[in-house]
Amino acid sequence: MDFSMDNINGLYLDVLKEIGNIGSGNAATSLSKMINKSVNMEVPNIEVIETEKVVEIFEDEEEITVGVYINFNGDINGTILTLLDKASSDNLVRILFGKKPESDIYNEIESSVIQELGNIMSSGYVTSISMMTSLNINISVPAVNIDMVSSILSVPAVEYGLESDKLILIENKLEIDDEKIKCYFFFMPDLTSFDTLFRSLGVLGNG
Amino acid sequence: MDKNIKVGMADYKVASGEEVLITLGLGSCVGVIIYDSSKKIAGMAHIMLPSSLEIKNNSNKMKFADTCIDLMMDELLKLKVSKTSLKAKIAGGAQMFSVSLNTESLNIGKRNVIAVKEKLKSLNIPIIAEDVLGNHGRTIKFDCNNQQLNIKSIGKGEHII
């Protein structure tokens, strides 16, 4: 049986949860090393939602957020979006760069600090999945944008809209309490990649 | 009564008189307003993808430029707008991220804009004003009463077209 959006069930969701757990665990470790602080991680949230609804998952659709977007390709393809609310991102820039950003839109250095952070965390995420599954996965140079959350989330919505009415969202939240940092991870393999992922983990047979 | 009418992604709404049509945080999608200024009737569509013909999973007609505009036109015509006096304003179609690996699909904002313009042309509806492309999100508000389209972007403030 091939995997499809229509037959996604408890077992698949559990496997995705575990993938999210391991991926974000590694990303959290990378972040923790970078800023020398302990990072808390919540159990990942797996949701199967209509593509156009993804832009509404945050209460305030106009909230200013910082998005770091990477594509991955190889044996599996898809995207990872790292999302920070503006205050969290400002705090991270301050910790890493020593100075808080002065304006709403980041200058080149501040932007590259966040880009690098997204890069290291996404690499951590992908590396752990690659090790667990023995799949070969490469990641692109990350792109950064600061904008309203729904306009940032329109990018995955539109990309997935090209092939499906639904999207599987593997969502993780990392927190650093004393610094008031909240970070969201969205791991979004494309539809055929789920098949490959499940097969590599022995969840789907070779029949 | 709230006079603000929110239009979600892959959706359209029609309004009139004192009502205001709103879409929050347009990214690569395109907002299309078709209006009859003498009757103060307008429709706003939030287009997600350029064409229903290119895609297998096309069950939701409101996602696509071609089919969504057709649906909205049907509803506008039911409200007895004058077909020959219809005008349009459009906004959106940004490229939020430029990532090297998958540039084709990421430039969907531009493709959405082209598709919307072609569709409006085929319907003989002139585009009176536009604010499209770029790499920033937009919140748009259309006031049916004065037919002004207010556009708000982060770091760029608000302007009216």
Automatic annotation (TrEMBL), chain A:
Alphabetical GO biological process terms: chemotaxis
SUPFAM superfamilies associated with the record: CheC-like
Top-level lineage group: Bacteria
Keywords of this entry: Chemotaxis, Hydrolase
Keyword DNA damage (UniProt): no
UniProt GO MF annotations: hydrolase activity
Pfam families found in the cross-reference section: CheC
Record domain CheC-like protein: where: 13-47, 109-146
Entry protein name: CheC chemotaxis protein
Lineage of source species: Bacteria, Bacillati, Bacillota, Clostridia, Peptostreptococcales
From TrEMBL, chain B:
Enzyme Commission number(s) of this protein: 3.5.1.44
GO biological process: chemotaxis
Catalyzed chemical reaction(s): L-glutaminyl-[protein] + H2O = L-glutamyl-[protein] + NH4(+)
Class of enzymatic activity (EC top level): hydrolase
Keyword Hydrolase annotated: yes
Residues in coiled coil: none
Classification via Pfam families: CheD (PF03975)
SUPFAM superfamilies noted in UniProt: CNF1/YfiH-like putative cysteine hydrolases (SSF64438)
Entry keywords, A to Z: Chemotaxis, Hydrolase
GO MF entries: protein-glutamine glutaminase activity
Organism superkingdom: Bacteria
Keyword ATP-binding in record: no
InterPro entries in UniProt: CheD-like_sf (IPR038592), Chemorcpt_Glu_NH3ase_CheD (IPR005659), Cytotoxic_necrot_fac-like_cat (IPR011324)
Task of the protein: Probably deamidates glutamine residues to glutamate on methyl-accepting chemotaxis receptors (MCPs), playing an important role in chemotaxis.
UniProt family annotation: Belongs to the CheD family.
Protein name: Probable chemoreceptor glutamine deamidase CheD
Origin species: Acetoanaerobium sticklandii (strain ATCC 12662 / DSM 519 / JCM 1433 / CCUG 9281 / NCIMB 10654 / HF)
Origin organism lineage: Bacteria, Bacillati, Bacillota, Clostridia, Peptostreptococcales
Gene name in the database record: cheD
